[in-house]
Write a structure and sequence with these properties.
The chain is mainly alpha-helical. The chain has ten helices and two strands. Strands 1-2 form a two-stranded antiparallel sheet.
Length: 250
């Protein structure tokens, strides 16, 4: 006997969490919620799906682990990612090490030049404005603070804002290339290796040069110059890898 998945039907006890997570995802899709939108309160969701609040929280934590939602303490639950995402990040992070950092850079060097080239061919003007906005945020972060002492923490102050803006640039460029699978591979690499990315930024050091290179890549993509966009991305990532390799081996 099948059990209805409607809003008011009780959730079958067998595979309770699987059923509940499916219903939450269906609710997000049916309501047309987008990344950044807030879900109803836990109490409202518990009443909607006729489950206890602890069970609901466990289902939400499961969805958070796959990147579908974000639980913000004291604020609520928010849609985090495209629900059609094909590739999920393993939440079990390994300790940061030099091999992982160099592997990450090699993977990005293989993937991102193709994405930059494709974005130059396929991105719309509106999408390119979105890409430019991420670099505007990076420029603002570079203008915050006056000395090295204000840039000491990897997750706070100008460095944190710059890291977020730079990663947004690479994520957005990948998405504009038009290949959802490749974009999600890059997105997952960035999510999984967030700590390594912050360490790379600290090792690379030349934030102004990095920003100017990003602007040049944007100009090539906006100018519909795919070959140039690919070349600039190859040179950019190769330069980062060489600098970081020397720093790790020094």
């Amino acid at each position: 006997m099948s059990v209805s998945r409607g809003a008011g039907a009780p959730v079958a006890r067998r595979k309770l969490l699987d059923e509940l997570t499916e219903r939450i995802l269906a609710h997000i899709r049916d309501e047309g919620l987008r990344p950044g939108d807030r879900l109803p309160s836990n109490r409202a969701l518990s009443e909607r799906f006729l489950v206890a609040t602890p069970t609901l929280r466990e289902a939400l934590r499961r969805l958070e682990a796959t990147g579908a939602v974000e639980l913000r303490h004291g604020s609520g639950v928010y849609v985090r990612a495209d629900l059609a995402r094909l590739i999920m990040v393993n939440p079990n992070r390994l300790r940061l090490d030099a091999t992982a950092i160099l592997d990450l850079l090699e993977a990005r060097e293989l993937i991102e030049p193709h994405l930059a080239e494709s974005a130059a061919r396929h991105a719309t003007d509106a999408q390119l404005d979105e890409l430019a906005a991420s670099l505007d945020r990076a420029g603002s972060a570079l203008g915050v603070g006056g000395g090295p002492g204000e840039r000491s923490g990897p997750g706070a102050g100008p460095d944190g804002a710059l890291h977020a803006a730079n990663m947004a640039f690479h994520r957005t460029l990948a998405r504009l290339a038009g290949n959802r699978a490749l974009a999600q591979v890059l997105d997952s690499l960035i999510d999984l290796h967030d700590e390594e990315q912050r360490y790379i930024q600290a090792l690379y050091g030349d934030r102004d040069h990095d920003h100017h290179v990003h602007l040049a890549i944007l100009a090539a993509v906006r100018g519909r110059a795919p070959v140039k966009a690919r070349r600039l991305m190859v040179e950019h990532l190769r330069d980062v890898r060489q600098v970081v390799t020397r720093a790790l081996e020094g």
